[in-house]
Amino acid sequence: ELLTIALSPDARAAFPFLETLAVIALETEGSQTQEIRSLETLFASTSWQSFDLPLCSAASFGELLRAFGFKSSLSLDLVDRLFAVTGGHLELIRRIAEADLQPANTGTLVPVSNMSDFLFELLENRLEKYAAVPEDTASVLRAAAVIGSSFAEYELGCLLHGREQLEKILEPAEKLRILDRSGTVRTFVHDVVRKYYLHHKNTCREALHERFADCLRLIHCGDYARRAEHLRRSGNHRGAGEVLVLECLRAMRVGTPPIIDSLRDSLDADLVSFIAVMFKAQNEFDSGRYTRAIEELIGIESLLPDALLAERDILLARSHIKLLTRDRKSVV
Description:
Layout: H1 2-6, H2 9-14, H3 36-44, H4 61-67, H5 76-86, H6 90-101, H7 115-130, H8 135-147, E1 150-152, H9 153-159, H10 166-175, E2 179-182, E3 185-188, H11 191-198, H12 205-219, H13 224-234, H14 237-253, H15 260-263, H16 269-286, H17 290-298, H18 306-331
Helix pairs in contact: 5-7, 8-10, 8-11, 12-13, 13-14, 14-16, 16-17, 17-18
């Protein structure tokens, strides 16, 4: 309002020195905090020349911090985190500089115990106030955060039930430096950004983890460890245990014995017993004692999930085939 008065014809007539007044104004596109009416009044009061300014690059971020009056020395890791959460937004850089200049600070940006809160506040201001992300994009990012730091487009498509135009929906996130892209794989620029979306109040984490575990069964069927972790995070501990058993059996087939004692805390007793029997049967099979392997395997109850019984049946069938083949050779 003061600038509007200063630039008015009446003020310039009363105070001739105002004729030489030059004003530089910075406007952020898409900002949710602009006072539109005041800006329109200001812009209407005189002629303006507009310039499109490039975004601050990662290489010039430290120099820009110093230009705003930042004096403390920072580790490269912290500089990377600050750039990731601010995206080089000038208003947020100014806030960082102000935090650095507060008398309570003693050579560091903010007390270490408050650093996570400070970074989260910066990121929240950037994404919800200064450069708001479209809700359609934000909802997809919340789902992507459940997948991990990086995600392929087909993984996200599976998680969101084949949602169309994902590439177009994610464009604002790439433009705002929330995501980096390499081909069809996108990566959150920093884990602090991913955690913001992962722990957002609108992120249905358990449901998304369970849904993505089912996606992994379809698109990465052999990635048992990852699938088990998503099931665990969904709250389905029994399902996670069953998939972990499949991972143990896979490792066992390539010569890595299961550490039974370490599994007792994370698996139900019947699953631990199943692994122990399968391990013993596999050893008998590898040693050529096919009859003993069959005896071990037929002792497994048929109350276990189909996926585990299929593992038993495969080894049982192989044992019978080996036994028959050997008997035929003996007859010959």
